[in-house]
Design brief:
4 copies of one chain form a homotetramer.
Chain A: E1 6-11, H1 16-26, E2 31-37, H2 46-49, E3 61-62, H3 66-72, E4 75-78, H4 85-94, E5 98-101, H5 111-118, E6 132-133, H6 141-146, E7 149-151, H7 155-168, E8 179-184, H8 200-203, E9 208-209, H9 217-229, E10 236-241, E11 248-255, H10 262-272, E12 279-281, E13 299-306, E14 311-318, H11 322-336
Parallel strand pairs in A: 1-2, 1-4, 2-3, 4-5, 5-7, 6-7, 8-10, 12-13
Antiparallel strand pairs in A: 8-11, 9-10, 11-14, 13-14
Helix pairs in contact in A: 1-11, 7-9
C-alpha cells in the first residue's frame, strides 16, 4: 500500500449505483472519496441527493469535468448512463486515471454487437481490446490487476453467468437447451427513469415480464458463457420486474447430457468456486432468497435436478446494486490495486 | 332459472379461497349463500374471520356437518385443505348436493399419481372417474353441465395450461423443451400456514424458488396438457414466491418445431380462445402485469418468439384467488347450472 | 327510474379516480357509460390506459369537449386536476348536465380560502353558493337530491370528518385539542405525478410526513367540522405517505370535556351513524385495518379513551379511491338521481 | 484499548435484534463475538437461522447457560424476550460480566409500574437501582461508563424522547397537550410472533393502530421525558403497524406556551444535539423518511410549527433494529468500554 489512501471518484454519483459506491467506499479502509460528479445535483451537497449521507463528510457534487476528475483521482468509477463512458474514457486514461465503468460501454468486445443491441455506434472502438470484463470469479485476476479500464458487468449477466459457468465449463449440458428466467427488483432500472413504469401504485402488488427477447444483457451473458464454454453459446433470456427494491433472482435451466445427481453437481459447483469469497454454494434444494444477500457482495446459489426431464435447475441470487454493480466494481478496484479482492467488502447482510 | 335462488354453501369459508367465494357469490344475481363452515371460527360471525364483511348479511360459521350442509345447499364449494373433500364427497353426493372441490383431491385421475405426489392414499378412488376437471376453456362444457362433482383446478395449472394449450394442441413445439417458470403471490399458500416462511419481515423485499422439482401441481399441469396434446407431456415446473398478495405470472418456454412468427402465433392463440370470455390474448410482446387482472376472473396472455433460439415464450397472468380458485369455481358452478359461464363474474379489475 | 339507463360520463377518465369510476359504474345497474375523456390518451382505447378493461365495452377516450360531453351525458363526473372544473362547469350546467366534481374547485365556500390554500384565484365564484358538499353522512340528502353541482369531498376530509363529527356535534371535546394524524397510500397523489417522490425504489420500505402544516385538505376538514360543531373549528392536520397503494388511516385526537368511557362513546357513534349504510362503528379498541375496506365504499371506525390523559382517540379507515373519491361520487350520484344511496355500491372488500 | 479484543456474546442471537447485533459487532474493530445462544436453534450453525451469515465465521448457537456465558464473554447482550434478563442478570453480574439488556426488564425504575404494564411481578427488584437507562443522547455518559447493567431503551421511546426532549427541557410546551403518534415497521414485533397478525398477505397493503392506549412503551417514554422535563409527564401514545420491515416514524405534537417559530426551534434543537453524532436535525419542514436511516444508528428529525394552532409538530425517524435496538446497544457498549460512542457504528444507510 502507498502511504496515503487511494483517491477515488465517482462520475454519476447521484444515481443508485453511485450512492451504493459511496456507501461501500466510505467503509473501505484504503481509499478516500475525493471527487463526486452529478449533472442533476451539480453544485449541491450529496445530502441533497441522498439525505442519509447527511452525517458523512463528502465532497460536493460537481458537473463532470475530465480535467478535474483526472486531477482529483487515482481511480474513477463511471456510474453514468451507457454512452457516457465511451466519450470520456480516452482523455481520462491518458491523464493516468484508472477507470471502472459500470455502464455497458466496454462490456461487449464486438462493436457490431454493441451497435445492434444498443442502437448506437460505439465511439471508442480502439479501447474495446484493452477493456477487461470484470467478473472476477470467471476472469483472470492478473488481467484485472493490470487493467487500466475495467468493464464492470451487468447485474443480470453476473447472476446468470455464475449460475451456469460450472456446467458449461465442463460441457455437461445441451447448449440449445439454455433458458435464463430472471427476476429483478426495481432499482435495477436506475434512478432517472420515471413515468408509470416505476410508479409505486402501478408496480406494487404486481409483476410482469419485459424486454423479451431483446434485453441488452443477452449478448453480454452469451459472451461470458461462450468464453467459459469455449464455444458459441446462444440462450433465451427473459427478465421480469418484481416489486422489490433490491435483488436479482436468476433461475437457469439446462438439459443434462449425462445423468448427474444434484449432489454430484453441488460438489462440482463447490469445487469450481472453492476459492471464491463471494460465491456461496448452498445444499442442493436449499434455494436462496434475495434477502439473504441484501446489501452484500455475495452470490448464493443452489441447484436441483429434475430427473423426470433430465433438466438442471440452478437459482442464483445477488443484490443487483452490490454484486450486480457497485460491490463488484469495488472488488475490481481491489484487484486492480493489488489488494485482496474482498478488502472492505465482507459486509454481512442487512436482514430482515 | 328456478323461482328461488340457488342455495350455495362453502365448506372452509374462513380461508382465502372461502373469503373470495363469499365476495363473488354475494355479487352473483342467481344465488344465495345459505351455509358457511369453518373449523377455526365455528360458532362465530363471518366478520370475526373477515372484518370487511361486517356490513353484509351472511350465515354464521359452523363446524362442518354433512347433514346440515346437504340440507342447506344445492351446490356446495369445498374450500378446505386437500384430504378433506375425499372424506365427505360421497355422502354429500348421495344426499343430492352438487360439489365443486377447490382442493386437489379429485384433480388427478390416477390414484397412484395422487399417492406419489401428495404422499397419502386416496380414499375415494371410485369417485375419480366421475369427477370432471373444471378448466372450462379446455374441457367440454356439456361434461361440466352434467357433473355432480367438479375438481376445480389449481392456480398454477390454470395459468400454465392456458399459456401452452394452443401450441400443444397443434403439435408445434418440442415436448421435451417445455419449461414453466411460475411466480406466485403469497395468498396461494393459504391462510392457515404460519411461521417464518410467510412472515412479512422475511418475505417482503425478497423472493425465492421453492418446491423444485417436486411441486404437486406438476402432474396436474402435465395431465391437462397431455389431454390437449393427445400424447404424454412431461415438463419442468419451477414455482417462485414473490412478495405480493395476489397474482400468478407464468412464463412458459417451448422450442418451435416450425418457423412461426410471434404474429402468426398470436393470431392462432386468438382463434383458439375466440369464444372464451375470460382469456384475453394481447398483442405479441405486450406482456401483461398481474395487476391488470387483480380481483378478476380473467387470464391475460402475451407471447413472443426468440428467433435466435427458435423458442416460444408465453406469459400468462391470473389472480390466483379468482381464476386460480374461487372465480373459476363460480364459473364451473354457472356451467353446472346451465347459466352462461360469465354470469356474475365479469367484474373489472381493482386497479391500481 | 326512467326507461333508459342514465347516461354518465367521466372527464379525466385515465387517472386513478377516473379508472375507479369506470369500475364502479360498470357494476351499477342503472347507468351506462357514454362518454370518457382523457387528454393523455385522447383517441385511444381505454385499454391503453387500463389494460385490465380490455374485455369491457367502453367508449373511446377523447379530448374533453363541453359540447360533446353535454350531448352525451345526463351526469358528468369531473375527475381532472383541480382548476379544470371551474373552467367548464358553467357551460355544462347551462347545457343541463348535472355535475359531480371530484377536484377541490367547489369544496370551499369562501373563495378567499381557496385562493389562500390553492395559490390561485377562483374563476367561478358565482357557482360556489350553489355547489353542495357531498359528504352524504353529514349533509342533507334533500340538498344533494336537488343539486346541479356536487363538490365531492377530498379523501382525508372524508376520513377525518367521519371520525370526529359525532363528538363535535355534541360539544364533548375541547376544540383547541384537535389533532388529525393521517396516513395515506400512494394512489392519493394521482396518476400524473412522477418523479422520485413516487418512484417505487424510493417509497417502498419507507414512510414520511409531508405538507405539514400547509396541506390543502386542512380548510376543507375545518369547514365540514365547523358546520357540524356549529362553531369555528381549527385543528392540526398532518398527512403521511405510506408505502401502500390504496387506503387512508386517520387517527384523530381530542381531549374530552366530560368523563365519558369508550363504551359510552361507541354507543353514541353507533347512534349517530345508525342509518348510514357505509359507516361501520366497530367495538371500542377493535381498530380497523385499511385492508378491511379495500375496494369498497365503507368507512370503518373504532375509538378508545386514554383515561390517563382524558383523550379520545378515534381511528377511521377508508379506501381513498372509493369512499375517498369515486365511490363517494357514485353515492352522490345515487342521491342526485333519487336512488337509494348504496345502489350498486355494496361491493364487499377484495381481501386479502 | 486492551491488547486482546473484547469478548462479546449474545443471549437470544436468532431473533431480529440478535441478528442485527451480529451484523454490527462483525464490523466493530475492537470486539470478537465469542458466544451465541438460541433456544430455537440450539446446536445449529448461525446460518440455519440467518443464511446470510453463511460466509462469516461465528460460534455455533447453544442453549443459554449462565456459566458458559460468563466464561466466554466480557460483555453480554441479552436479546431474549422480556422476562428472561431479570432471571439471569444477578449470577452473570456476580461472575463479572457486564450486561446490556435489550428487553424491557430493567428500563422502568419503579417495579410497580413494571408490574402494572407488563402484567407480571419483577423478580430482580434489587438491580433496578443499579441499572442505567441507556439513551446516550439524554443520559450521563459517566454513568454509562461505570454501569455493570445497562437497560437498552425500546424503539418507540428512543424515537419519541429524541423528538420531544429539547422542548421539554426548556418548559416551552404544555405538558397536557402531548401526543405521540408512532408508525412502526413489522420487525419491531420480533421474529417469534407468528399468526395472521404478521402474515404477509394480511399485512401488506394495509395499516392499523394497535395497543391503544395500553402499549408498554408508554411509561418508558414518560419516565425519560419526566427526567428531562424535571416534572411528571403524561402523554397519549398511539402506535401503528405499517407494512415495511424496518423503521419507526414518530410524529409528536405539543402546544407551544410561547410564540416560537420553526426556525428558532430548529436552531434550539441543533444546539441541544450539537455534540451528538447520531442525531441529525434537518431544516424545518424537511421531513425525513425512514429509508434515510435504514440500517444505520442515526435519528433524523425535523419540525414545523402550525401557527394557526400554536402547535409544534416534530417528526423523528430511526431504524427500529439499529438506533431502536442493536445499534444503540453497541453505542452503550462503546461508552461502557470507554470508547468513543460512534466506534464501529458510523455505517451509512443502505439506500434505496
Amino acid at each position: 500500500m502507498r502511504h496515503r489512501k487511494i483517491h477515488v471518484g465517482i462520475g454519476g454519483a447521484s444515481g443508485y449505483a453511485g450512492g451504493e459506491l459511496i456507501r461501500l467506499l466510505l467503509q473501505h479502509p484504503d481509499v478516500q472519496i475525493t471527487y463526486l460528479s452529478s449533472h442533476t445535483y451539480a453544485g449541491k451537497s450529496i445530502s441533497t441527493a441522498f439525505p442519509g449521507f447527511a452525517a458523512h463528510h463528502l465532497p460536493p457534487l460537481e458537473e463532470f469535468d475530465v480535467q478535474r476528475a483526472a486531477q482529483k483521482t487515482d481511480v474513477l468509477f463511471l456510474a453514468g448512463e451507457t454512452g457516457f463512458a465511451m466519450q470520456v474514457a480516452r482523455p481520462l486514461l491518458e491523464a493516468g486515471v484508472r477507470l471502472i465503468d459500470l455502464s455497458a460501454d466496454f462490456r461487449l468486445r464486438d462493436p457490431a454487437v454493441y451497435a445492434q443491441w444498443y442502437k448506437r455506434e460505439h465511439s471508442a472502438i480502439d479501447l474495446l481490446d484493452e477493456a477487461v470484463y470484470g467478473l472476477p470469479e470467471l476472469v483472470s485476476h492478473s488481467q484485472l490487476r493490470e487493467a487500466r479500464l475495467v468493464a464492470n458487468p451487468g447485474c443480470y449477466p453476473t447472476a446468470a453467468a455464475l449460475a451456469l459457468a460450472p456446467v458449461l465449463a465442463q460441457g455437461w449440458v445441451e447448449p440449445e437447451s439454455l433458458v435464463v428466467d430472471a427476476k429483478s427488483g426495481v432499482s435495477g432500472a436506475g434512478r432517472s427513469k420515471f413515468g408509470l413504469d416505476y410508479h409505486f401504485a402501478e408496480l406494487n402488488e404486481s409483476m410482469r415480464a419485459y424486454g423479451v427477447p431483446t434485453h441488452r444483457h443477452t449478448p453480454e451473458i452469451e459472451q461470458m458463457l461462450s468464453d467459459v464454454a469455449g464455444r458459441v453459446i446462444t440462450l433465451t433470456f427473459t427478465p421480469h420486474l418484481i416489486p422489490i427494491t433490491r435483488g436479482i433472482l436468476c433461475t437457469a435451466y439446462a438439459r443434462l447430457l449425462r445423468p448427474l445427481t444434484a449432489q454430484e453437481l453441488t460438489l462440482h459447483y463447490r469445487h469450481f468456486y472453492q476459492d471464491k469469497t463471494f460465491v456461496v454454494v448452498r445444499d442442493a434444494g436449499d434455494f436462496p432468497a434475495t434477502k439473504h444477500v441484501a446489501g452484500t457482495n455475495y452470490c448464493h446459489l443452489s441447484l436441483t435436478v429434475d430427473e423426470r426431464t433430465q433438466r438442471l435447475v440452478v437459482t442464483s441470487v445477488i443484490d443487483n446494486l452490490v454484486k450486480g454493480a457497485a460491490g463488484q466494481a469495488v472488488q475490481n478496484m481491489n484487484l486492480m490495486l493489488g489488494l485482496v479482492e474482498s478488502r472492505g467488502l465482507e459486509l454481512p447482510p442487512v436482514f430482515p
